[in-house]
């Protein structure tokens, strides 16, 4: 809230984006958005805003999403984005936060255009990266509310026991391709680079 006031915004949202098969969903960690606005906007729209080409990395120049102009973003129509203007989010800035392995994004919004201070926004981004990096375990627990399906969890469990893909397929009574598909989905959900990292994340989070 202090950073929101410092940049001249009215609202903030700290978001983790979780990938599930062919779509991305937002997991809201903290926000002062009205609950109804979140429900009307939907997780997919919030995830798209966070990951859009407008999202600025630390050191980059933030660009405003002017919702009244109804810009079409990846897979989201302009009318859906225009709804945010009606909900009091006329101007939105999306900032990427580098905190551990989990992709995090910070959205600042204002009810009117040109109220948010760009210099303060850049400073806030660095401060948030620093502050959140000191509580990565807490953030990980907030985000990692067991995103796996039962089958994905079973596959990772047997992999953690040293079983090969073919052995897991026999145990579960499915094909090897199906096992690989479940493991791939689990890797994506954990934003891991390989199955060993996904297994380690699942064990560390108490999921398996």
Automatic annotation (TrEMBL):
* UniProt xrefs under SMART domains: HTH_LUXR (SM00421)
- Does Transcription regulation appear among the keywords? yes
Q: Which InterPro entries match?
A: Sig_transdc_resp-reg_C-effctor, Tscrpt_reg_LuxR_C, WH-like_DNA-bd_sf
- Tell me if Transcription regulation is a UniProt keyword of this record: yes
Q: Which PROSITE patterns match?
A: HTH_LUXR_1, HTH_LUXR_2
Q: Where is the HTH luxR-type domain?
A: 141-206
Alphabetized, the UniProt keywords read: DNA-binding, Transcription, Transcription regulation
Q: A Gene Ontology molecular-function term?
A: DNA binding
Q: GO annotations under biological process?
A: regulation of DNA-templated transcription
Highest taxon, organism lineage = Bacteria
Pfam name, any one: GerE
CDD domains referenced in this protein's UniProt entry, alphabetically = LuxR_C_like
* Record protein name field: LuxR family transcriptional regulator
Q: Which organism is it from?
A: Pseudaminobacter soli (ex Li et al. 2025)
């Amino acid at each position: 809230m202090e950073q929101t006031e410092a940049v001249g915004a009215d609202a903030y949202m700290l978001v983790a984006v979780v990938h599930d098969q062919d779509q991305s969903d937002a997991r809201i960690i903290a926000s002062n958005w009205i609950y109804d606005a979140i429900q009307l906007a939907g997780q997919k729209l919030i995830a798209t805003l966070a990951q859009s080409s407008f999202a600025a990395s630390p050191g980059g120049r933030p660009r405003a999403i002017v919702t009244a102009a109804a810009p079409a973003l990846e897979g989201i129509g302009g009318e859906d984005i225009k709804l945010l203007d009606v909900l009091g989010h006329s101007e939105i800035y999306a900032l990427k936060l580098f905190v551990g392995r989990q992709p995090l994004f910070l959205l600042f919004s204002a009810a009117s255009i040109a109220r948010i201070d760009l210099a303060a926004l850049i400073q806030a981004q660095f401060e948030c990266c620093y502050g959140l990096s000191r509580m990565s375990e807490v953030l990980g627990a907030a985000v990692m509310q067991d995103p796996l399906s039962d089958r994905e969890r079973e596959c990772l469990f047997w992999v953690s026991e040293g079983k090969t893909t073919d052995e897991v397929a026999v145990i579960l009574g499915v094909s090897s391709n199906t096992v690989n598909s479940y493991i791939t989905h689990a890797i994506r959900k954990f934003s891991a680079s390989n199955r060993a990292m996904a297994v380690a994340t699942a064990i560390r989070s108490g999921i398996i």
